[in-house]
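so my prof wants the structure for this chain in the tokens format not the other one, which i didnt know existed until like an hour ago. anyway here's the sequence
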Amino acid sequence: MGMYVNQVHIRGRLGSDPKYVKGKSGKGFYRVNVAVSYKDKTDWFPVLVSEKFRPDEWKKGDLVDIVGKASYTSYKKDNETRYSLTIFPINVFNFNRVSRIKELKEATPVDENEFSLELDDFESEDQAVQ
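here's what i got, hopefully its the right format
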């Protein structure tokens, strides 16, 4: 018997900020929708992201690269069978989050002498009232 692999790879932008939800088991995760555009068509993929990928730091519009497992389920609604595809990430890279962290790390520290003020630099209360 051969080996079978269930793996999807999507790269797209978040349609909204991640929303924290709890599953039936009580385990928490974040729900996001990723928009993947090709030519004039956009496909939306629902993704359930574990807290280990720090989705609480993601923002609407972030560019993400996700490799994961696809789960396809069916359910009944209004006497009609509907189908749902959900992606469960195995590996995630958020390009914008990395850029935000890099900008913070490369920020120039403040020179402490730049803000050292002497008492004489302030007007006395008497001078300020005039």
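also thought this was worth mentioning. The first strand starts at residue 8 and ends at 14.
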